[in-house]
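Worked example

This section walks through a single chain of length 256. The input is the sequence exactly as stored; nothing has been trimmed or padded.
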Amino acid sequence: MYGLPQGVSLAINLLAGKIEQLKSKSLIIAIDGHSSSGKSTLAKDLSSILQFLHIDSGAMYRAVTLYFLRNQVNVTKQEAIDCALCEIVIDFEQIEGHSRTILNGEDVEKQIRSMEVSQTVSDVAAISSVRKFLVMQQRSLSGDHSVIMDGRDIGTVVFPDADVKLFVTASHEVRTQRRFDELVSKGVDISISEVAQNLKNRDHIDSTREDSPLKRANDAIELDTSHLNRGQMVSKALQIIFERSEQTKEQIDNTI
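Given that input, the structure is written out below as tokens.
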């Protein structure tokens, strides 16, 4: 496992029996939510604990955005977009216990987290052809694995029949502080008001785009992380996953 904080380790110890049962299951877990709600950290922690494949769909959209920025792709021209997408290959590699995003053979994990990419990614993600391109890649990457995938349309579009769906939320103030702290820790010179505005802009674009807007799936369970620490998030999520997986098993048994 990659470096898990003490609170998460405690949750693992308390739920050890259920975790072992979940490891033996074949599951697809979809985690959706707004930016900086905690969904990506939660997905990484759950992936490490359950030893499921983690696919960070947000990183994939960021990788496409980075490629577009580097190559000055004209996003108002569909032909230019289509040509660019034909040149993009995205993969993930485990390096020193951490999942790294690989764009055309290059580790771009650091570059895709830049503010420049953050300010552009929602606009790129709103392009229908980009979404269709990445949905195909996301489904292909999952293969026959047990999968945890986080994003904004995982439970509604990518895996509408996922065994477990979580919709992770947090207040705008909490999300702003989390994102600000993350950027400052990376040495980014930015004000908290700039971060707040960026999140508001991204929320609006993500929720109002025509193709696959961010919304809670009807059968998703909402997890508000505003007042939860990392260990509490993991504990609640594991409980939900265990309960939902047991319900699914009962439904299957009843049809046999």
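What to look for: The mean pLDDT is 90.
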